[in-house]
Amino acid sequence: MDKRTEARSKADELLSRMTVAEKIGQLIQPFGWKCYEKQADGSIALTESFKEQIRSGAVGSLYGVLRADPWTEVTLDTGMTPEQGARAINEIQDYAMKHSRLGIPILFGEECSHGHMAIGATVFPVPLLLGSTWNVELYKEMCRAVALETRSQGGAATYSPVLDVVRDPRWGRTEECFGEDPYLIAEFGVAAVEGMQGDDLAAEDSIMVTLKHFAGYGSTEGGRNAQPAHMGLRELHEVDLLPFRKAVEAGARSVMTAYNEIDGIPCTSNPYLLNEVLRGDWGFDGFVITDCGALGLLVNGQNVAANGEEAVKLALEAGTDMEMSGEMYTKHLLSALEQGLLSEETLDKAVQRVLQLKFELGLFQKPPANPAKAAEVIGCEEHARLARQLAAEGIVLLKNDNQTLPLGKDIGKVAVIGPNANAPYNQLGDYTSPQADGDIATLLDGVCAALGGDRERVLYAPGCRIREEGRAGFATALDKARQADAIIVAVGGSSARDFGEGTIDLVTGASVVTENALSEMECGEGIDRMTLNLLGSQLELVQELKKLGKPLIVVYINGRPIAEPWIVDNADAIVEAWYPGQEGGHALADILFGDVNPSGKLTVSIPRHVGQLPVYYYKRRTRNKRYLEMDFEAQYPFGFGLSYTTFQYEGLTIEDAEQGTEDYAVAVAEVRNSGEAAGYEVVQLYVTDHAASVTRPLKSLKGFAKVWLEPGESKQVRFAIGREQLEFVDQRLQRVVEDGAFTITVGPSSREGLEAGLVIGVGGRLA
């Protein structure tokens, strides 16, 4: 009997002994930070209300026991160290197993989008940068590190990865996504499953992933969070569902529903999505959880239910098992059963799925947390080095006129200017815990370290703030910049919530805590924008710096693309750093001074103007009309990124597939480093289908490889072309490969490359 079958059998036996109240409790997930109070000695005291919930079997899971941020109101002072957090989890679990009638353990779920969201944990770059590495194996290594940190404290489930396909980057949650292409997102989704879950869910470095947000969440109207998504089922299957299907096939054990509706059906109560597709077509046998507060929207917001009882009936019958926050299930699930709106059989199916995963995770067998291990691995140096490498590989060089970069370390003085030059929280992204002083390396820190710690050679001034209009800091910034041999100006955005760090004095650059500090946040969950330009006085600051006639290097630190044509035309170099995490400043310095050759490539297209949206690269041939003022081509296309060396692509050929494989053909190209610096090149494979029974994209990414090349070195890159590369979803929602002509493109971006023809004949073989 395999482990999953054994877990299912144990869950069935346990379910047979449970009361209705206990069953309902297993589907309820309250906020974990509210179940205890931290004591002066670092221990915790469970609240009386939580103890009563445990004794009555009214809770089966806890969300965010270890989460710390302004929403939870858990601070560095009120939160717990890694070791204290692990002990707290053990105490909660011990109480649950000793004081509930059947001794059923708690499932602890935590946020881990780009690191365990607990005090002291490693803050990795946001997923938008992780996607820009195009390095799936390195990302998988990060996932193992995050799983180890989280599980050492007792977290057994994570609410990641985010597999939403970005269609409109005005959406504030763009930073949480890997990009705009479903194939690339799928590759990272599979890596997350393999990296975080591993081979054994009960292992000390394994946590259960929760794929989110299911589905179409990145395709809502106007780039506004949780708004309706307008698309047909065929496109839904071909684009938005692809990453989820691949991750489910890789073994993902949990899925989170999206807030949005698709064609008038909320995802949380959509039986087609959850029962027919997810469970029926894909064979998923894990459990489904709501996003926080989503069930309430069914009554107040989407209004597909007249009351709470109808809402929980719709959700459970559609296939939603657990409710994050637990508000609606707590208040209405029992009465829905008593009124006959819902059968106990339906309830049992949901409970069985949750119990099975608790057995698979090994929660019944051992203490959930290892305090000594938590103190050892959380925020360790090895993970910091990994964070720095990821940031360096995901930073994208967009422009480099006259080889402005890399800067020489023998340079006289460097001016480091801008609101994001020395703002730790501004480079971390959303879903981040409070940080102790000195834990985050800012751009200023990185430049100083790269120049041997000689602060006299580094001249710093913020110049302005992210969102505030005004020139109060300009004079100081310009004075510093005049003394420098090169200017690095860090502008962009912020997803920093109010961590109480105050604001920045525009003259001295010091942090100042004020009673009514101005929020700099312009990105993150719930922060959607109408435009993609720089806010406040940032562009004006860059324009004034340009007038000084010094080499001007613009560094963007932000969570969504920025469309500023003036900077494109006038900056000497442009570096897109996204939110690079705790080691971002060092990684940026590695790039700026040439210790690392930039290899990041864009995974979202950057428009020239917000009015061009959407500009995602896989446009259909029918999208061939221009606007009166401008065409619809992106300023920087998907897959684009410069290097300090040059790469030449030669001799693309299409070969017969090897005998014994199911592939149709193999694309083979030679890539040569024709420059003077060693570096990585991201080689990309695109497929164009010339005639099909439905309209197809002009081209689609279907493969990529990150290749290291020494100067003058050549390597042969081979891509198998099989069903996955050529199939599409037809009018009957079936994945098919049709005979016909294809163009295979291999190159450095979605906009350029070598081309070769491929014809698939009768029977699906190479003609």
Automatic annotation (TrEMBL):
It catalyses: Hydrolysis of terminal, non-reducing beta-D-glucosyl residues with release of beta-D-glucose. Its EC number is 3.2.1.21. One of its GO terms (molecular function) is beta-glucosidase activity. It is an enzyme of class 3 (hydrolase). Residues 681-750 form the Fibronectin type III-like domain. One of its GO terms (biological process) is glucan catabolic process. Keywords: Glycosidase, Hydrolase, Signal. It comes from the Bacteria. The keyword Hydrolase applies. The keyword Cell membrane does not apply. This is beta-glucosidase.
